[in-house]
Amino acid sequence: MDALLWLTIVFPLAVALLLGTKARRYVLLLIPASALVAIGVALLPYQQLSMPWLLLGSRIGTDAVNVVFLLLAGVLWSISALFARGYMADKVNLKRFYLFFLLSMAGNLGAILALDLVSFYTFFAMMTFCAYGMIIQDGRDSSLRAGKVYLVLAIMGEALLLAGMFTIGRQLGNVDLQQLPLVYDQLANPTVTAGLLMAGFAVKMGAVPVHVWLALAHPSAPVPASAVLSGIIIKTGLLGWLRFLPLGTFLVMDGLGVAMVIMGVVSALFGAVVGMVQRKPKTVLAYSSISQMGLVTCLVGLGLLFPHSWEIIFAVLLIFILHHGLAKSALFLGVGMTSHHARYSGPLLLIPALALAGFPFTSGFLAKGGFKEVVSALPHEAISLYGPVLLSLSTVLTTLLLARFVFLAWPERARTGTFQASLLRWCTLPWLLNIWLLLLLPFFAAHFVSRPVLSQFPLGSLLEGALTILAAAAFAWLLWRFVGTLPRWARIREGDLLNPVTGWLNRLLFWLILERSQWLFPKEKSLPQSGPMPLEKPLIRLEAYLCRTPLVGIAVLLLLLGLVALFVAGN
Fold it and tell me: What biological process terms from GO does the record include (predicted)?
């Protein structure tokens, strides 16, 4: 049993190392199997493994919090890897993509399994920075810009997380994450610590206003990378909230809870509205993820405000992440199918779209019905009154957003387009498997959620949900024409808030240089003249030699061995 926990993380790393060997052609066949161990571990009884010799005493394992995340991660990484075998066959920088794909997978699975503070941050940072390689895979200017924005926000989020984790570590040591919520009141300033951690994980969740990386990364990343980015990687931010915030305890944080609810409402509405005026299908899906994660943020905020209702809120969260992960992965993979003009890809694309909108008898209806049950049962008059209204508004906006997506992604030349055999073999089957699992989710979700949520479907709710979605879909064709005739000044480019901010910063910089350069370089002072450097050419040659891949790899390996030796000696 302990070997399976180890193998879940080590298997993707071993396959990544084998990519550089002569057997790479055969190693590619192992990539879809790299995450299958995670599925097996998630289906087994809870287990834990303690490694006191690693880092500051690492612990990995499964429990009621992470088992659903692990199952979803295993399914999505396997499906995306199998899809990539056909979709990425003719793409450039294939080795780079698979290397960072496997490293991101190992980091993601490690963060999910981690049960101590140091291990969680190590794997979380590995996942975060290795995902950059998938975003810039094709090397285009737009991809490099998206990667730059992603790195800036990722580093900002990591700085916030480090500040919060150092605060915890200084007072509690390498604390067990299962016990952290119970000892949160022992911290000197628990509200500040929780605020730092909330903000750091909000970057990964794509919450407004730190959401701009999502809208840029998804159009740039390959389809299989987008499927896991939106399906499971951003949900690791939710796992961070569940691990590091005092949820389910009686330590009430009203200010932080209200802030998260407001941030969630803004994200839910902002993402849906801005997504409706986009012109790329993957960009529309990126804003849809921002909107849907806004609802998740609202639930976590309500959990901080009403600790006694955490049990049912947690159950709804688990159903929501399963539903959203499978639906969003199916939609992104569907973009890859429709772009190749695959037969029947258009009608099949409607299935995950209707599920994400919350059509009756789908997983989305189950998830949003649970959300409505939560807000209606809370002992707060304003939330129980306006919560269902917000959810209905979100359903309408999501339906209009997905109608826009289907309009953009629908294959125009499905009858005349070519259908490659490799695409049929490697892409169609995993996509159909993804859709099939999404359809079955309402039936097997109860096996992973301890408390029943929306165990029965009232006729009134079914009719209300069906009529709301059908009315919004019928109105959508007017919206398409309206969006098509929007003036240029009214269109919002992908990246939304980032574009005016960077524009004004550039104008300020040019104004300082061209108009106020004397502030930087006064006329009475001249810049020192740099003379010739006799060692310039030898230093350049030495730098080029040291930058060679084998030497860099040896240096990194020696650094890691030194760190391991240091930690072992310290223990």
Answer: ATP synthesis coupled electron transport
Tell me how many degrees the CA angle 38-41-47 measures, rounded to the nearest 5.
135
- CB contact at 8 A, 339 and 234: no
**What are the pLDDT digits (tens) for 109-156?**
999 999 999 999 999 999 999 999 999 888 888 888 889 999 999 999
Long-range contacts of 478-487 (CB under 8 A, 24+ apart): 479/276, 479/400, 479/403, 479/404, 480/403, 480/404, 480/407, 483/276, 483/277, 483/404, 486/277
CA distances from 305 to 260, 300, 380 (A): 10, 9, 10
In the block, which residue shows the tokens 């223990």? 571
pLDDT digits (tens, 9 = 90+) for 293-313: 999 999 999 999 988 888 889
Q: How far apart are CA 266 and CA 272, in angstroms?
A: 10
Angle at CA of residue 295, ends 447 and 187, nearest 5°? 85
**Cβ–Cβ contacts within 10 Å for residue 506, how many?**
10
Statement: the pTM of the whole predicted model exceeds 0.70: yes
Q: How far apart are CA 283 and CA 265, in angstroms?
A: 20
Backbone region of residue 346 per phi and psi (left: phi > 0; alpha: psi in -120 to 50; beta: other values): alpha
**Helix (H), strand (E) at residue 217:** helix 212-220
DSSP three-state, residue 116:
strand
Question: Which of the 8 DSSP states describes residue 529?
Answer: P
Residues linked to residue 60 through DSSP beta bridges, in sequence order: 49, 114
Contacts of 56 (CB under 8 A, 6+ apart): 116, 118, 173, 174, 567, 570, 571
Cβ 136 vs Cβ 213: under 8 Å: no
Residue-level length of the chain: 571
Tokens of 174: 């390498």
- Pairwise CA distance, residues 231 & 228, whole Å: 5
In this structure, what token pair is assigned to residue 297? 């943020």
| Beta bridge partner(s), residue 61 | 48
- Confirm if 97 and 156 have CB atoms less than 8 A apart: no
How many CB atoms are located within 10 Å of the residue 480 CB?
A: 15
| Helix, strand, coil fractions of the chain, as percent rounded to 5 | 75, 0, 25
What is the C-alpha R_g of the chain? Answer: 25
280 in Cβ contact with 219 (< 8 Å): yes
Of 69, 70, 47, nearest in space to 60 by CA: 47
